[in-house]
Amino acid sequence: MFNKVLILSASSGAGHVRAGQALEKALLELSMAKEVKHIDTLDYTNKIFRTFYSRAYIDMVNHMPEVLGWLYDKADRPWQAEKRRLAFDKLNTRPFIKMLQKYQPDISVCTHFLPCEIISWLKAKEHLNSPQAIVVTDFDVHAMWLCHYFEHYFVALDETKIHLSKLGIPESRITRTGIPIDPAFTRLPSKQEARKMFGLDPNKTTILLSTGGFGVGPINNLLLSLLELKHPAQIIVICGRNDKLKARLTQTARTLPPDHHLSLMIVGYTSEIHFYMAASDILVGKPGGLTTSEALAAGLVMVVVNPIPGQEERNSDHLLEEGAAIRCNNLPVLAFKIDQLLDDSVRFRQMQEKVQLLARPNAAYDVVNKLLTLDVVPAPKREPRFAKLRRFTRKLQPG
Questions:
Q1: Which of 23, 96, 273, 314 could link 140 by a cystine bridge, Cβ 3.0 to 4.6 Å?
Q2: How far is the C-alpha of 129 from the C-alpha of 376, rounded, in Å?
Q3: How many Cα atoms sit within 13 Å of 72 on the Cβ side?
């Protein structure tokens, strides 16, 4: 058992925080720690830096996704520009560094790349002695996740494990667990039971439209396209924290006649996403790492729409390759593609089976259990200051 576990996420997108919350719940459920502290790293940075990491990210998702994709690809150069990036991060995270040195956790678990880079530097300088574990929250691994001083990586796929090993990370220090999701996904009700919870038809195809935790993206257009479905269906729309979006879509729902073959349920922010997923057959939305992992655990076939260039594009590629999703690149044909899928019951059943093979509902528990087996990997001893210069000058001395 640990005395103090520090979970470090960052609120640039909801997924990193949700992964941290999942690990916190698993640690407490399994009684693996006396104290668990989950911190948003951005709370310990200066205001400009915090805005860049959070608000700027959401703005780019909504208005400049192609720029976000360009930046993602441009920065994906393993082991390059790390010194410049670290210098910039150190400058903006001084309160975070002070907090780490004061708290001195038994282990740090990072679900975002920003804190793991700072901890790696502190370990290299021998200012922090506790181990750190790094939990990659997408199916692919980006160069920003790479650091030199760590104890273990946790990844979503075997392919990601191989990729990391090719980049120089020892394979013995990488474990495929899947991405940690709320332990509630290990004990879901049946579809019929979940539908009854929300007053839905137990036997009707149910489609979940997800906007992510912040309610971003062209959701109005998505819903209008879905309303062209020919198959009878009930559509659940999760609006996240976007109250304006919820109000608009609620008004749209009121325009449907009572005898319409489609029905709409508009939901704001919810802590019961696992129940809504359990009630559904299909998820329509963006393939973020956490949303995708939750959907797989709930047995949902995914319809990928408008993935953010970069990490979501890569997540989408993995899902399509495994046969667990279809992709719609043009919203006017969204309903047509879903109708086609529902017309082919054999294909739909096969996709559900592929989903089950990818699902990792126990990922949070698996990460926590592995943490207990980790040993601290000591950083190489630093030479005293000017040691290299002294050795060089001795060589120059005669005799």
A1: 314
A2: 8
A3: 19
